[in-house]
Amino acid sequence: MQQEHDADERELIELAKRVMPGGHFGNLAMEIVIDRGRGGRVWDASGNEYVDYLLGSGPMLIGHGHPDVLAAVEAQLAKGTTFFANSEPGIRLAAELVDAMDCGEQARFLSSGSEATFYAMRVARAFRGKDKVLKFEGGFHGMSDYALMSMAPKRPGNFPTPIPDSAGIPQVSRDAMLIAPFNDAELAESLMREHADDLAAVIVEPFQRLIPPAPGFLEHLRKLCDELGVVLIFDEVVTGFRFAYGGAQAYYGVTPDLCALGKVIGGGFPLSAIVGRADIMKHLDAGKVEAERFVPQIGTLSGNPIAATAGLATLEVLRRPGTYEALFETGRHLMKTLQGLCDEAGIPALVIGEPPLFDVLFMAGEAPDYRATLTADGGKLKRFNQAVRAGGILKGDSKYYLSIAHDDVDIEQTIAAWRAAIAQLAD
Questions:
Q1: Nearest one of 140, 149, 143, 218 to 178, comparing CA atoms
Q2: What 3-state class would DSSP assign to 198?
Q3: pLDDT recorded at residue 5
Q4: Burial (CB count <10 Å: 0-12, 13-18, 19+), residue 248
Q5: What is d(CA 245, CA 383) in angstroms, rounded to the nearest whole number?
Q6: Backbone φ and ψ of 292, nearest 5°
Q7: Nearest one of 360, 392, 361 to 376, comparing CA atoms
Q8: What's the Cα-to-Cα distance from 38 to each of 59, 61, 159, 266, rounded to whole Å?
Q9: Under a CB-based contact definition with an 8 Å cutoff, are residues 273 and 96 in contact?
Q10: Helix (H) or strand (E) holding 44
Q11: How many CA atoms, within 13 angstroms, populate the side-chain half-sphere of residue 386?
Q12: Torsion 27-370-131-218 (CA) sign
């Protein structure tokens, strides 16, 4: 029977190679076909079981197939799947997002994180009547032309000149972006002051990929944006409801003007949102601004009732007492253990991140910005990830996304896989 499953998965992989560029959806590029998930685990089409730290690239914070989410979605399915009009689940979820986020006064739904960051920048430009946006090298803000500037340049250039990370991006998009190093408050201030007359917004991941903000960095950006009248956008597609119920803005204690949300708020279904100040968000309301300052935003599935229902059920679970305390306790234990295993083996390593989201970089010293991470041994990380996967652990090229569904058995298996993988690296 196992051989039949293996053959079925190989057949699917070969079919994928034939009908899709690269043989995949553009996401995880491994030759694997996921068949199902439950709690903190997934199974591939060959029946192999994994502790899942990919979590759909983050949305499944409460685990796969949570019974409360399934029950809510099943009830909504009987009522209808999409309407292209307001629905009760969407309205109630918008209210919950506004209440949860410190910057929240109004919310607008979209379907992907890329859309949320794109429209956040567009609305900020409309509000300011200016074109340029400052972003930070190595920051990931989705797949728009603007976001794909110096997202992961292999040969970084001179600041503030952007380097496109994709073919097909027009020069005009490059001209609208300024690039600064993350955690360098001095250079960010210099660029913001130099371009203040043309600067609409600063967009930043408050926690950039795996790099926490340096003490005072986000506060300095907030102060400068206030002084210059520039819109501060937090990309909280990853951190929203993951670092705290109020997102990274609550966790780090710095409030942006707008934030982009995604992943967790859809409970495993496609959903994202912009949340922010009403005087900025009004540019999405044709009745509140002049025609030339109105930002139309239409999406067939924006605010989809199934996704909104799943999101509401997910957030209800996250509000339960002790949820975040347990998530952070598990994450701290894993981070400390992984660093200790590397240290004991004499392997230079930096376990970096925050307890709900972390990884290891094989390097000595610290990594305050994107360029510092380029000094890490990527080949060693690849070998480590391959060995860990052989131990039944699924993760992406970077990041361990932690779920509240990961239990003691999952943690024990993870540590055993790490120990075996590190022994291989040390040989």
A1: 149
A2: coil
A3: 59
A4: buried
A5: 35
A6: -75, -10
A7: 361
A8: 14, 12, 45, 17
A9: no
A10: strand 41-44
A11: 9
A12: positive
pLDDT at position 28 is: 81
Copy the structure tokens of residue 339. 């660093």
If we measure between CA atoms, which residue out of 202, 164, 160 comes closest to residue 179?
160
Q: In 3-state terms, what secondary structure has residue 70?
A: helix
- The answer to whether the CB of 37 falls within 8 A of the CB of 52 is yes
Residue linked to tokens 């070998």: 383
Euclidean distance between CA atoms 238 and 43, whole angstroms: 24
DSSP state of 214: P
Identity of the residue numbered 222: R
CB 394 within 8 A of CB 29: no
Q: How far from 57 is each of 260, 262, 312, CA to CA, in Å?
A: 16, 11, 20
Helical packing angle, 67-77 and 305-318, nearest 10° = 150
Secondary structure of residue 63 in the 3-state scheme: coil
Looking at every residue in the chain, the average pLDDT score rounds to: 95
Identity of residue 49: E
Instruction: Look up residue 271 and give its amino acid.
Output: L
> With DSSP H G I counted as helix, E B as strand and the rest as coil, what are the percentages for the chain, rounded to 5?
45, 15, 40
In 165-216, which residue ranges form alpha helices assigned H by DSSP?
A: 171-175, 185-194
Q: Convert the pLDDT of each residue in 47-102 to its tens digit.
A: 999 999 999 999 999 999 999 999 999 999 999 999 999 999 999 999 999 999 99
Cα–Cα distances (Å) from 425 to 37, 179, 363, 368, 385, in that order, read 30, 36, 14, 25, 11
Decide if 381 contacts 348 (C-beta within 8 A).
Answer: no
What distance in Å separates the CA atoms of residue 112 and residue 297, rounded to the nearest whole number? Answer: 13
pLDDT per position as a tens digit, 225-260: 999 999 999 999 999 999 999 999 999 999 999 999
DSSP H/E element including 19: helix 2-19
Residue type, 80: G
- Distance separating alpha carbons of residues 117 and 160, to the nearest angstrom: 20
User: What is the spatial distance between Cα 186 and Cα 353, in angstroms, rounded to a whole number?
Assistant: 23
Q: In 38-136, which residue ranges form alpha helices assigned H by DSSP?
A: 67-77, 88-100, 113-128
Looking at the chain, how many residues does it have? 427
CA distance 318 to 327: 10
Q: Provide the 3-class DSSP secondary structure of residue 325.
A: helix
Condensed to tens digits (0 to 9), the pLDDT of residues 199-215 reads 999 999 999 999 999 99
